[in-house]
Recover the amino acids of this structure.
């Protein structure tokens, strides 16, 4: 009875804390500028099914894709087992779903195979990060917390899967020994993997029961802890990949957003009869200096990033040693957004600190290294768009600060003066027709 | 070869005519000596295939692409809106350009500012002309030559067009070879996003060197391009390896014009 109450309390605490964090993430995302992405719902749904559920963009790196699918399928399917664990925990039953008979055995057997494959995948991923040391996991932004985060997740998965398998092994052994709470006249469950562990287990019923219970509690507490870890981690992508791909950019990659605030001003300049905005309208800030200047979708992008680095490893600027890393742009955006969120929690909504995303996190040098080639957006398995953030910050630098590199200032004035980014008069535009050859 | 005649929209309008297509030459195509040769090749192909075309001539102005990519939305929209006024004034419906940056900007970013046209890159027009039989090409001097194609970002990833340029040059019976980073994974030449107009940030290599190195590793006779900026960047890259006498950097339009002997 005490165990049941303890379980229910843990469950409430775990889910409650998780809900609280999710609300703060949603609040943070809503700090962004409004953008209407309610168009083309069917196309969005298809994109989500293809890219998030179907992982269509993972395949460009087959090894990672293969083991990632194992983790992904394993994670989703093994979690069906959590339903049983919760019922058992609340009502003090044991293997309550075993009345399903052979289908139950099929489920448990499948979970065991998957758990084993997940273990292998975790070891492969750990070795890619820590032994083979793939370059994209060892770049400047991948030290300290981002580095530990990735390893913590893999170790937690290993512990959870091991607990699951050891629990089953003990259970199987207890059933073989016909222990009263476990054996119900016939063996329930199938143990294709854990049955191999039996020879390592003691034969004493009390110890077996202790190990089985320990693993059961470890597994469910581990899952609740993991649930609460996820929103703080790069692992958040397991949830946000879905909404984030749903709200993917559906226009051609080359089409940059049109700034309506600028359109209004340009129309006023070109057409004197245009109606000016009301004089008391707040002056719009052009471009992005801080996270609140970005759209909610760009902020959701930052929470969806799992720091895999496919963007950065495809970025021509980064490949040639420049400071720019699209992954860092996303990580900085998230870090700054979390910071702004904490400030609001602690000091109220109007609190302003001395920092900003541009300046305190992202430098101008990074922004000016971008060739806008879209390699990063193409590479991202969950359709994150670092390029739009880079461009919005360039807009702030150019239109609010006038701090573009001198050559670009020169290019601007040439376009203004003679309608070309080079110093040639429009009257020379037909010269090519006169040239010999 | 008959003499090249390039009418302007103003000429056409004065005669009460309207061309099938407006040839948007672009700033590089108008002023850059190397790109001017590509412009001429495109015009010659258009004339040769009997496509009625005209240019804006002195009325053409920068699309605003480099300003927009550099963050100067204000200057971009000034350029865009005044170009839209000119284009709409001539009731332009179809535009062809040999510059993927102009192509992308007019096709994708002008509609929000009142400019709605059918915009094609010259590789797409060439493919259309070949497909409907108006342009007949044979390998000629290109037959069997080892050639690779460098995807322009603003044609490829930006607008999803990978096939047209490949399909056009493969009509030349060439030995086509693909770089490892091609199509959606193509590596930028380093000029996009207004980089063309500034020195690169500090790094350990220039992007065009990285790309030229990759192309040269295939030992091609020609590196085919479809963008005036890529042309500049890759030509410089090839020169950097002192290979400019062995490897040519050519636009696909130049190759077609040469193959049908209208050069």
């Amino acid at each position: 009875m005490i165990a049941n109450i303890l379980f229910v309390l843990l469950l409430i605490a775990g889910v409650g804390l998780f809900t609280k964090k999710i609300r703060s993430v949603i609040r943070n995302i809503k700090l962004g500028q409004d953008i209407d992405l309610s168009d083309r719902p069917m196309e969005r749904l298809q994109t989500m099914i293809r890219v998030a559920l179907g992982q269509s963009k993972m395949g460009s790196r087959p090894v990672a894709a293969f083991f990632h699918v194992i983790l992904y399928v394993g994670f989703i399917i093994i979690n069906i087992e959590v339903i049983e664990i919760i019922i058992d925990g609340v009502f003090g039953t044991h293997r309550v779903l075993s009345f399903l008979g052979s289908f139950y055995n099929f489920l448990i057997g499948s979970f065991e195979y998957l758990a084993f494959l997940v273990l292998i995948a975790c070891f492969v991923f750990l070795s890619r990060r820590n032994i083979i040391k793939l370059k994209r996991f060892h770049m400047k932004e991948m030290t300290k917390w981002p580095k530990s985060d990735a390893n913590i997740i893999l170790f937690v998965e290993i512990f959870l899967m091991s607990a699951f398998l050891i629990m089953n092994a003990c259970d199987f052994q207890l059933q073989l020994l016909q222990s009263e709470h476990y054996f119900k006249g016939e063996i329930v469950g199938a143990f294709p993997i854990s049955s191999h562990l039996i020879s390592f287990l003691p034969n004493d019923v009390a110890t077996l029961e202790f190990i089985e219970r320990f693993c059961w509690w470890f597994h469910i507490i581990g899952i609740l802890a993991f649930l609460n870890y996820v929103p703080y981690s790069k692992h958040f992508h397991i949830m946000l990949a879905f909404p984030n791909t749903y709200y993917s950019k559906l226009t051609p990659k080359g089409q940059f957003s049109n700034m309506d605030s600028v359109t209004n001003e340009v129309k006023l300049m070109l057409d004197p009869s245009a109606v000016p905005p009301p004089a008391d309208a707040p002056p719009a800030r052009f471009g992005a200096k801080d996270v609140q200047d970005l759209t909610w979708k760009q902020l959701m992008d930052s929470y969806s990033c799992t720091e895999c680095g496919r963007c950065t490893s495809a970025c021509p600027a980064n490949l040639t040693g420049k400071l720019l890393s699209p992954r860092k742009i996303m990580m900085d955006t998230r870090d700054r957004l979390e910071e702004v969120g904490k400030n609001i929690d602690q000091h109220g909504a109007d609190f302003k600190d001395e920092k900003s995303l541009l300046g305190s996190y992202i430098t101008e040098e990074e922004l000016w290294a971008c060739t806008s080639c879209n390699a990063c957006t193409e590479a991202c398995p969950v359709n994150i768009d670092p390029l739009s953030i880079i461009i919005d910050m360039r807009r702030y630098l150019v239109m609010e600060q006038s701090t573009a590199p001198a050559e670009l200032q020169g290019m601007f004035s040439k376009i203004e003066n003679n309608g070309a980014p080079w110093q040639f008069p429009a009257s020379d535009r037909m010269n090519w027709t006169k040239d010999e050859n | 070869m008959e003499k090249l005649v390039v009418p302007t929209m103003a000429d056409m309008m004065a005669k009460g005519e309207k061309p099938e297509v407006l040839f948007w030459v672009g700033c590089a195509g108008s002023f850059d000596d190397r790109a001017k040769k590509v412009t001429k090749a495109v015009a010659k192909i258009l004339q040769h295939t009997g496509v009625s075309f005209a240019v804006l001539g002195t009325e053409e102005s920068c699309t605003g692409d480099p300003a927009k990519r550099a963050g100067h939305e204000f200057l971009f929209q000034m350029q865009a809106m005044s170009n839209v006024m000119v284009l709409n004034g001539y009731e332009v419906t179809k535009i062809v350009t040999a510059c993927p940056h102009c192509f992308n900007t007019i096709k994708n970013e002008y509609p929000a500012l009142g400019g709605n046209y059918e915009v094609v890159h010259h590789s797409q027009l060439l493919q259309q002309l070949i497909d409907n039989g108006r342009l007949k090409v044979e390998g000629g001097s290109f037959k069997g030559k080892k050639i690779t194609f460098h995807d322009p970002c603003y044609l490829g990833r930006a607008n999803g067009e990978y096939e047209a340029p490949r399909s056009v040059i493969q009509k030349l019976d060439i030995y086509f070879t693909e770089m490892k980073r091609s199509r959606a994974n193509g590596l930028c030449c380093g000029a996009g996003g207004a980089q063309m107009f500034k020195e690169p940030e500090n790094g350990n290599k220039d992007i065009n060197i990285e790309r030229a190195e990759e192309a040269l590793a295939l030992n091609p006779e020609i590196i085919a391009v479809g963008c005036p900026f890529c042309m500049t960047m890759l030509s410089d890259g090839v020169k950097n390896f002192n290979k400019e006498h062995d490897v040519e950097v050519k636009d696909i339009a130049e190759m077609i014009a040469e193959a049908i002997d209208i050069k």
In short: The longest strand of chain B covers residues 21-24. Chain B touches chain A through 75 residues (CB under 8 Å). The domain at 137-259 of chain B is CATH 3.40.50 (Rossmann fold).
